[in-house]
Amino acid sequence: MSVELKKADKKTSDYRKIKKLYKKAFPAEERAPFFLLSAKAKKERVDFWGLYDGDKWVGLMYVVNYADLSYVFYFAVSESERGRGYGSEALKAAKAEYKGRKLFLAIEQLDPDAENYGERVRRKQFYQRNGFEELGQKLREASVIYELLGIGGAVGAEEYDFMMKEYLGRILSRLAVMKIIDE
Question: With the C-alpha atoms ordered 13, 19, 20, 26, is the resulting torsion angle positive or negative?
Fold first, then answer.
């Protein structure tokens, strides 16, 4: 088994499955509107991937790029395919695709009082098994604070700001609260 990253857009045969997984896998407060993701994916520095094992669709990955940064904004494996190694294979494919770049992502903080604490611990362990390290940084997106994990080193706060301003555009970047907080 190996996972391929294939560009996803409205013409993709599995587009509806991708949209459904996106809405199910991420809590409403952590999701951008799907139409916005699709529109932004038309930009040169945004990669919206369907994850495939041959012709079989198994998940999604959405990556925003800037300078030497590649931010895995969203990543999910289809519920019916979880636990089969597809997540690890997808990250392996992403590491190859973005080799030589700082590849990073944000996960929910490990808060023992959180309802899904066990899930958060397993998620962090999964990423660490796949080569992602603690960056010693937090990310505030609106009212949610995440921990950053990555490959290739820490992410500069100013560099992150430039990336998000370019991604979101002049108007949306003024409305969004997205800041890196060094620990």
Answer: positive
